[in-house]
Amino acid sequence: MRLRNSLFVRMSISFLLITACKDTVQESATLLIFGGNIYTVDDTRPMVEAVAVKDNTILFAGSLAEAEQYKNDQTQLLDLNGKTMTPGLIEGHGHFMGLGYNELNLDLNNTTSYQEIVDAVAERVKTAAPGEWITGRGWHQSKWTEMPPETVNGFQTHDLLSAVSPENPVYLGHASGHAGFANAKAMEIAGLMELDKEGISKFEVEGGEVMRDAMGRPTGIFNELAQSLITKHIPENTPAKDIKAFEMAVAACHKNGITGFHDAGIGRETIALYEEMKAKDKMKIRLYSMLTGGDKELLNEWYKKGPMVDPDNLVTIRSVKLNCDGALGSRGAWLLEAYTDRPGHFGHETLPMNFVEETAIDGLQYGFQVCSHAIGDRANREVLDRYELAFTELPQLATDHRFRIEHAQHLHPEDIPRFAQLKVIPAMQAIHMSSDRAWAIDRLGEQRIKEGAYMWQSLLKSGIPIVNGTDVPVEPLNPIASFYASVTRKTLQGTPDEGYEPAEKMTREQALRSYTLDAAYGAFEEGIKGSITVGKLADFTIYNQDIMKVAEKELLNTEIAMTIFGGEIVYTK
């Protein structure tokens, strides 16, 4: 009996020793990063010396001495050599496949005159088959250095474009995506060159505009919903072209330090493509996708099955995108008072407000965030009103709704505090201020600009976070340009000296947070990304210089040196 008890004691001690040893064994890192300034966007420890990663998860963030305890012979060592690292940047509002197709089609973002557009199309005609559609996007008449001699409502007419492309239908999207420019061949295919007995084009579209000259003939400019008169005739993309565009979009994200992307409005074909790309292990980006509100059948299908929160953190669908007005550049933004440079014109309500209210109620009931495009001050007020009605009707479901307004560019001063009061998140693209402010004053006048345009600091001080981004392909994906605009409120040429309405600048800390943790919050994902915190996903962006300290005039010289996605280096300059 004594022997049996002695044996039992020895076995128990051995078991305890083995268990204790197991508890003290450190997990080993697959990647150890050190040697530069590492900004965590974690308030408990804003900067660290080193980060240890195990597979796709952050294992440790702190001192280098402590981090080395996680190193073994198989650990990959990454010395930053003085470079700077932050959490992986998140594009808070963009169009992912639009980004990819902008790489494939005519990219007109950098054109500075109508003639440059004509020349680009003439060059493409040389290699296009007769009858083949030529498409592109990115022109913006307000950014041109010179205007053509003939204009209607501030826009060019199609004659020069049609002259260089007589056998090819052409459709070129405005940079905003809210207008388009067609040549005569495209309008002929759409039946728009037919005139009535009075010699006037007979087509009208509610929520849009076919611009006409003094004789009633279409000029080639199609605003808002009128674009469908042309676009419905453009052949659909092929599956092979879709895959190529997807791959190019992923590569563009990596090159720009983007590891997460809020995809603002997708349909069933794109959802199927994303599922296919994930199944083929090509989903090297974290997509937070919004269902297009223009397809009621699609919405009803998703309401029945509920949100899809991806356990792999690659493709999540739990929000709906509504397009409630147009853009300022095309004078489609819906305003409370008429455009300063087009008296009597107030822009366009592109979606009935009762549908916004209906969708807000459905969103609360079925667990979907609602994200409404609203640029003009009236559109913003109307959307806030409809959200508030839904919150009042279903208060028990509105405790953590995180409904958003996409853009929120031009607000009536009385509506600025309502965002925080209603807990509605503004998703604002700082680069729009840099690109638009110089001419936006012509649309709105000085008072409206100064009291309610691009009100970042006022919104932040009210207690609501801002989600930043670029609205790519409306603007180039470059996050450095948007970061620069956030903290300077200048054009990319560095004007004016003090910035436009400088009191509304973000601090660098606020700007970085708007591209990381606050962007994650805007997608219910702050628990898994947005900061360099133990347990979160190992997504990082590395820069050639310290964006938090470098002189303002040097900020635009910042380059993305490396992008790490899920603990793997996916881009190196």
Automatic annotation (TrEMBL):
> Which species is the source of this protein?
Arenibacter algicola
Lineage of this protein's species?
Answer: Bacteria, Pseudomonadati, Bacteroidota, Flavobacteriia, Flavobacteriales
Its recorded name reads: Amidohydrolase 3 domain-containing protein
Q: Where is the Amidohydrolase domain?
A: 76-571
Q: Which residues form the signal peptide?
A: none
Superkingdom in the source lineage: Bacteria
Q: Fetch the PROSITE patterns from UniProt.
A: PROKAR_LIPOPROTEIN
